[in-house]
TrEMBL record:
SUPFAM superfamilies: Calcium ATPase, transduction domain A, Calcium ATPase, transmembrane domain M, HAD-like. This is Heavy metal translocating P-type ATPase. Its main location: membrane. One of its GO terms (biological process) is copper ion homeostasis. It is found in: Cell membrane; Endomembrane system. GO terms for molecular function: ATP binding; ATP hydrolysis activity; copper ion binding; P-type divalent copper transporter activity. GO terms for cellular component: endomembrane system; plasma membrane. It comes from the Bacteria. Keywords: ATP-binding, Cell membrane, Membrane, Metal-binding, Nucleotide-binding, Translocase, Transmembrane, Transmembrane helix. Belongs to the cation transport ATPase (P-type) (TC 3.A.3) family. Type IB subfamily. Coiled coil: none annotated. Pfam families: E1-E2_ATPase, Hydrolase. It is a multi-pass membrane protein.
């Protein structure tokens, strides 16, 4: 069994700390039987997966001992059963986001991690983290000491000694955390961090200042140590407040109510959400969030599933539909009765939070580049500080050389290099999830940013994957419509294709028990385009035009042209070896946001392709409706290998390819592409989700456009901040290392700290700008505010109800199908797209 330990690491302060933790875990990989691990600087959390029989307290103690230097706290345990362990099979529709495990906590196995009390540090460590207090003390005392020395022009020796002792003691108190962290990380983890730079610089200042009592030409800089740590604490306090505004610790479950209404024996009782069990009955009031996954027991209603599908309008809800936590009941809807099917720790939102958290842990290539830079940055800064001190001492007084060396140490800021990438990826993942797309890792998000070609599967991806028979036709006088259905249903009963199910369902609906049951022999279902079998001594074939031509059935050249077809229509023929007997016209309607998504992708400069197993004529009709060039259609790709070959051919043409699919045969092309999007649908397959880099919930397509746009914004933000951080550090080292001295300018080390803080704030401010930035996926001429998740208040006015009315009131008509199928489909789809774009009500 695999056991995963999740924990907090408050002691990590920069990218060097993250590298150190990963190095410590790498060193203990064999001894502790570690399978995988990850650390996230933004949230200061990590996990370790261990191969062991059960939750072992020895492993917990080993982790605490190993990572104690980083204040490891709040360890929770997640159990993963062995792959061969029996599992309960579920309906594929219900496997939107499967929990990877059931949580349990050692010594409190009945508690989920979110119910545990927040981890607390020892009192002395909490006191050391009162950054605003210590920042004000250090800054005020340092400025006061500097003013006193400047105004008086010199103080008596006794006073100077008293002030020196006081400032040294206060500097050591202000820097106690940095000294402790630097020493422990150097001794236990053998790593240099930001704390190392502050410790070296302030201890140098203290040593030189004390020595100045005995060596008159040395500078006395007692105020510099106070100002350095004063500014340091103020900077940390501001950084924490900005991170709070960024909501890095916030999860989707944070919005859930703590208590819910449970219906017991006809009465409503208020129960803690964590105590709700499977099959409990909940009552959800209008305006409230669906807290747990379950079945809707109410009659016609409305639901806002923006968090799942990215849809901007509420949709119709029917009794018996499966609902996921995070959906919201609109204000104008009726109260909803829900039968719980998953407890809190196994709900959709719990799994979504878990996936996002794990995505933070997997490093993107650009993050690995920043990490590699950090490995050499701090030693390089220390070396440059020594070098600048030596060079300046050759031409200027030693006092000036010491001051310059200290300024170099405190002005350099490696912590931003380690924070830039995970911060942007975290915000990007969260924004993408808000728009209905879940990136599995930072690596996937970065890959999405470079995509310039999008390959789309047809059935089940661009379409709903729910074909219906719209009409039939007879081409032989010897059979009736009932015969056409009888023979076709008998053959199609041996197929799992969506068209086969549609024909069988339509036959059952129209004829029921009246339809004769024919015995089929020698069934050959090896064709993707159909199948053949023997009924009463006659061989029949059923399938598309390609199958008929492949099997040599007489096929009039103008037959298809004589049958009126619309976009979304497909033909299935029934034939013998000699002639065509009849046909079915099936319509698999486009998704309501398909045209809008294609327009958005085209506006973003993406080259679009259709790669499908359907016939070319069928694909061409869809492509014409969507505005995709005919030459960009690759039809007849039956298996995953053929689709994968098409993906490879595009990559050879230097395209960065994203594949969008849903079926089992899309698994291989999704894995072969630079970036794979798995669209969840009723006809979807779990292998598609497994091999994709991102998952689109509930079959919406708009999240693809948003996901690519947000990924591009995230990588752009990373490049901006990395470029600024590298430029600042290079400039800081060059200027403070001697250039300013050559110009006759000297900087107090405290000024270097202030500049470092300013750089950190600018980078965090740019990250906050990215968080507030809207997705630029909207096509030209469309307001960005109307393209994407609208506010909850805006959603309410979309309901066809008067304020205060309910769905069961007289006069409320709910008989409109949200996606009708028929000859007016194009007009309906176009009007729905315009409705989604303009937000018209």
């Amino acid at each position: 069994m695999t056991v995963t330990y999740h924990f907090s690491l408050p002691g990590i302060t920069c990218g060097a700390c993250v590298n150190s933790v990963q190095g410590l875990l790498e060193g203990e990989k064999a001894r502790l039987k570690l399978l995988s691990w990850g650390v996230d600087l933004g949230t200061k959390r990590g996990f370790v997966s261990v191969l062991q029989e059960q939750d072992d307290s020895t492993t917990r103690k080993e982790l605490i001992t190993l990572l104690d230097v980083y204040d490891i706290t709040g360890i929770s345990v997640e159990h993963h059963p062995d792959p061969q362990s029996p599992v309960i099979e579920k309906n594929p529709q219900d496997i939107l986001l499967q929990p990877s495990s059931s949580y349990g906590v050692s010594q409190a196995e009945d508690l989920a991690p979110e119910l545990l009390p927040p981890p607390s540090l020892p009192l002395y460590k909490r006191v050391l983290k009162w950054h605003w207090l210590w920042g004000v003390i250090g800054t005020v005392c340092g400025i006061a000491l500097m003013i006193a020395c400047m105004v008086t022009g010199g103080l008596p020796l006794a006073v100077m000694i008293a002030l020196g002792v006081t400032s040294v003691v206060l500097t050591l108190i202000l820097g106690a955390s940095s000294y402790y962290q630097a020493a422990m990380k150097l001794v236990k983890a053998r790593t240099l961090t930001m704390d190392t730079l502050f410790a070296i610089s302030t201890l140098t200042i203290i040593g030189v200042s004390i020595a100045s009592f005995f060596v008159p030409w040395l500078p006395m800089m007692f105020e510099a140590g106070l100002l350095i740590f004063g500014f340091r604490h103020i900077g940390l306090a501001i950084e924490e407040s900005i991170k709070d505004k960024l909501g890095l610790d916030r999860t989707y479950q944070s919005d859930l109510p703590q208590r819910v209404r449970v219906l017991k024996e006809g009465k409503e009782e208020s129960v803690d959400l964590s105590q709700v069990a499977v099959d409990d009955i909940l009552v959800i009031q209008p305006g409230e969030i669906i807290p747990l996954d379950g079945l809707c027991l109410s009659d016609d209603n409305w639901i806002d599933d923006n968090i799942i599908s990215g849809a901007i309008m509420p949709r119709r809800l029917r009794k018996g539909e499966h609902l996921l936590s995070g959906m919201r009941l609109p204000l104008n809807a009726s109260p909803l009765v829900l039968q719980v099917k998953a407890v809190k720790k196994e709900s959709y939102l719990a799994c979504l939070d878990e996936r996002i958290a794990k995505a933070y842990m997997e490093k993107a290539p650009i993050e690995e580049m920043a990490t590699n830079i950090l490995q050499y940055f701090i030693p390089a800064v220390i070396g440059l500080a020594l070098l600048s001190g030596i060079i300046i001492a050759c031409f200027f007084p030693p006092a000036l050389a010491i001051q310059c060396a200290v300024t170099v140490l405190v002005s350099a800021c490696p912590c931003t290099l380690g924070l830039v990438v995970p911060l942007a990826l975290m915000i990007g993942n969260r924004k993408a999830a808000d728009h209905g797309v879940q990136f599995k890792s930072g690596k996937a998000l970065q890959a999405a940013a470079g995509i310039d070609a999008v390959v789309l599967d047809l059935n089940g991806t661009l379409t709903l994957g729910e074909p219906k028979v719209t009409r039939t036709g007879l081409l032989d006088d010897e059979i009736t419509t009932a015969d056409l259905y009888s023979l076709s249903a008998a053959l199609e009963n041996h197929s799992t294709h969506a068209f086969a199910r549609a024909i069988c369902d339509d036959a059952q609906e129209k004829y029921g028990e009246k339809i004769p049951h024919n015995l089929v022999k020698q069934v050959d279902d090896s064709y993707h385009a159909g199948l053949k079998g023997e009924i009463a001594g006659t061989e029949y074939l059923i399938g598309n035009q390609e199958l008929m031509e492949q099997e040599g059935v007489k096929f009039a050249p103008d037959l298809v042209q004589k049958i009126p077809l619309q976009a979304g229509d497909s033909l299935v023929f029934l034939a013998t070896r000699k002639k065509i007997l009849g046909y079915f016209v099936l319509t698999d309607p486009l998704r309501s946001d398909a045209k809008l998504t294609i327009d958005a992708l085209k506006a973003a400069g993406k080259t679009l392709f259709i790669n499908t197993g359907a016939s070319f004529e069928t694909a061409r009709r869809y492509a014409e409706r969507l505005g995709i060039p005919e030459q960009n259609i690759q039809a007849g790709c039956v298996g995953g290998e053929e689709k994968a070959l098409f993906i490879q051919s595009l990559k050879k043409k230097k395209y960065k390819v994203a594949m969008v699919g849903d079926g089992g045969n899309d698994g291989l092309p999704l894995a072969c592409s630079d970036m794979g999007f798995a669209v969840q649908s009723r006809s979807g397959h779990q292998m598609a989700s497994q091999n994709a880099g991102a998952i689109i919930q509930k079959g919406a397509l708009l999240p693809i456009a948003h996901g690519l746009a947000i990924a591009r914004q995230a990588v752009s933000n990373i490049k901006q901040n990395l470029g600024f951080s590298l430029a600042y550090n290079m400039a800081a080292v060059i200027l403070t290392g001697g250039l300013l001295v050559a110009l006759g300018i000297t900087l107090n080390p405290a000024v270097g700290v202030a500049l470092m803080i300013l750089q950190t704030l600018l980078i965090l401010g740019n990250a906050y700008r990215f968080k507030l930035q809207q997705s630029d996926a909207a096509p030209k001429g469309v307001d960005k505010a109307d393209f994407g998740p609208c506010s909850y208040t805006q959603c309410q006015s979309s309901l066809p109800l008067k304020p205060g009315a309910h769905l069961d009131d007289p006069g409320v008509d709910l008989d409109t199908d949200p996606l009708p199928v028929g000859e007016n489909q194009d007009l309906i789809l176009e009007s729905q797209s315009q409705f989604a774009l303009t937000g018209s009500h």
